[in-house]
Amino acid sequence: LAPADKRHYLRGLCLDANDIFDKEQSLHVDGAPETAEGWIDLQSSPLSFDDLDELANNVNLESLAITAIDILNRLNEAAPADEDTYRAIHISEKLYVPLCEIVGLDGLAMELRSRANILRLKHSGNYHFVQEAHQILGEHGFPQHMEAFEFAEAMLADIGIENIGEHAVSVTNDHNTIIGHGLAELLSDDEEPTIFRYVFRGKSIGSLAMKLFKQSDKGSAERGAPMDLFGVTLITDNRDPVGRIARTISDKIQDNTP
């Protein structure tokens, strides 16, 4: 099926996703960019928060996943530099990435953004940044989820936080998205243990490639592997230990700074 025919078919399949398809139709694209630079320059800002909030409160998660994955499949590296590809990038960045983030489909949002960035760089003549990103992540990244999970555990242990929950995703994948979460606790001699939910993520190929591209005009002094190839976020309802953890992290950074 052609992309437009396939979206029409999915609209009939996911009847409770009509609000999403209506919003898609309102996002007009007047052809593909006329120049290579246009693939980079014409980046799409997300819809307003009010529009996204209304959709998030009314959409069925299964329907959202199905429609977003169809867009994801169209954003493969073989996609030509035509209007269909540019439209897929446009509605991905403007609608599906922020909407997936709001409802908690963070891995899907990361992969959509990554593939959109890769295609923008490829069709603007900057694919060498994608190749550089592959090289950097090949040397410093994590080929398997469990390796990333173990690294996240080690980072937490270094600041006195112990993992107590099994990693939610324990399988490898054949894409570039590394993301996961678990439970951990901070023990204290004079306080009750503080329970944290933690979320970790590895930098995606497309995100790293776009960052390298944006750094490319800042001179060689700022080039090289960015510092944020891997990150862990701690989430808790208890504010009391946050300051202590922040001081511990600050001390660790100072101890390791030449």
The helix-and-strand class reads: alpha+beta
What proportion of the residues is helical, as a percent range?
40-55%
Strand content: 5-15%
Largest sheet: 4 strands, antiparallel
The H/E string reads HHHHHHHHHEEEHEH
Number of strands: 4
C-alpha Rg (nearest Å): 21 Å
Description:
Helix content is 54%, strand content 10%. It has 258 residues and is α+β, with helices and mostly antiparallel strands. Strands 1-2-3-4 form a four-stranded antiparallel sheet. Strand 2 (178-186) and strand 3 (194-202) form a beta hairpin. Helix 4 crosses helix 6 (83-103), helix 6 runs antiparallel to helix 7 and helix 7 (106-123) packs across helix 10. The longest helix has 21 residues, at 83-103. The N and C termini lie far apart (58 Å). The model is unreliable at 168-173 (pLDDT under 50).
Task: Offer a few descriptive terms.
258 residues; alpha+beta; four-stranded antiparallel sheet; 11 helices; 4 strands; 10% strand; globular
